[in-house]
Write a structure and sequence with these properties.
The protein has two domains: 138 residues, Rossmann fold, CATH 3.40.50.1370; 150 residues, Aspartate/ornithine carbamoyltransferase (Rossmann fold, 3-Layer(aba) Sandwich). 38% of the residues lie in helices and 14% in strands. Strand 1, helix 2 and strand 2 form a beta-alpha-beta unit. The chain binds N-carbamoyl-L-aspartate. N-carbamoyl-L-aspartate binds next to helix 2 and helix 6.
Length: 305
């Protein structure tokens, strides 16, 4: 593995290996002193050209817990605002002897293009509607912790699948690990092409949730939508919102995931988000562990302390 650009092209053993390593990292996070010297002397750049709270900060903390140095570059305040291309920015930063680049961008394919011109590892932290591989891995890790494995589980992915890079990464990793996937939401937000790879698609929330073991709830990505696509938010909530009533259609031990950020009262009600079936904050913690595992795999170093 030289880069982490997507989950579609990762082999199942590579995925399993990263998830095992992530579980080891969870144990490091549970220690009173979390810093290990694994990546001491290495430096990474966090290049975030789209808003982010969880992903950016958890990459930064993951690098710091492994003793790497981190610099953060955002569009605002960088030379991109003066007309410099992203490629030139990245080339110049990599010339400062950094060992890896983490990139988030609104355009799909940007991480791949950076990997083509840089000779250091590139990690995709979310590109357009394409993929968000570390989110897919942390979702899989959370499900494995809750259920033991993904094999034969029914996973419902609810909402704006069309614009969701999270859904795309989830689909590849959940399928690789043997889950059954149902996509559900408004018809104009469901890409039909997934039926070809064995994913079920429905607009009927009840049908998707009956017998579900896991419900991954997505935000309506209004920044990527054409305004004509949007139903009113109350109408969306009424038909596809996860509420106490709609959750009762799933298995009694079904867990609820959400990649964040959440719009309370739209795609999910507060009492579910904050309730006992929600694994949402565990996802956030697992995100740090997964990013530690990815940095460790790509930037080398031993697990010695
Ligand atoms: C997601 C993203 O940016 O793709 N959030 C995240 O990284 N946890 C999902 C979203 O923005 O809705």
């Amino acid at each position: 593995m030289q880069n982490l650009l997507d989950l579609e092209s990762l082999s199942t053993p590579d995925i399993e290996n990263l998830l095992d390593l992530s579980q080891n990292m969870v144990e490091i996070l549970d220690r009173p002193i979390k810093k290990v010297p694994t990546l001491r002397g290495k430096a990474v750049v966090n290049l975030f050209f789209e808003p982010s709270t969880r992903t950016r900060n958890s990459f930064e903390l993951a690098a710091k817990y492994l003793s790497a140095d981190v610099i953060n570059v955002q569009k605002s305040g960088s030379s991109v605002e003066k007309g410099e291309t992203l490629w030139d920015t990245a080339r110049n930063l990599s010339e400062m002897a950094v060992d890896g680049v983490i990139v988030r961008h609104r355009v799909s394919g940007v991480p791949q293009q950076l990997a083509d011109i840089l000779d250091i590892p590139v990690i995709n932290a979310g590109d357009g509607s394409h993929e968000h591989p570390t989110q897919g891995l942390l979702d899989a890790l959370s499900i494995i912790q809750a259920k033991g494995s993904l094999r034969d589980l029914k996973v419902a992915i609810v909402g704006d699948v069309l614009h969701s890079r999270v859904a795309r990464s989830d689909i590849w990793v959940f399928l690789a690990l043997g889950a059954r996937i149902v996509l559900v939401g408004p018809p104009w937000l469901l890409p039909e092409s997934y039926e070809e790879i064995g994913v079920e698609i429905t607009t009927d929330l009840r049908q998707a949730l009956v017998d579900a073991d896991v419900i991954q709830v997505l935000r309506l990505q209004q920044e990527r939508q054409n305004s004509k696509e949007l139903p009113s938010l109350w109408e969306y909530h009424l038909r596809w919102g996860i509420t106490r009533q709609t959750l009762s259609w799933a298995k009694p031990d079904a867990i609820v995931l959400h990649p964040g950020p959440q719009n309370r009262g739209v795609e999910i009600d507060s009492d579910i988000l904050d309730g006992s079936r929600s694994w949402i904050l565990r996802q956030v913690r697992n995100g740090v562990a997964v990013r530690m595992a990815v940095l460790f795999r790509l930037l080398g170093g031993g697990l010695d302390e």
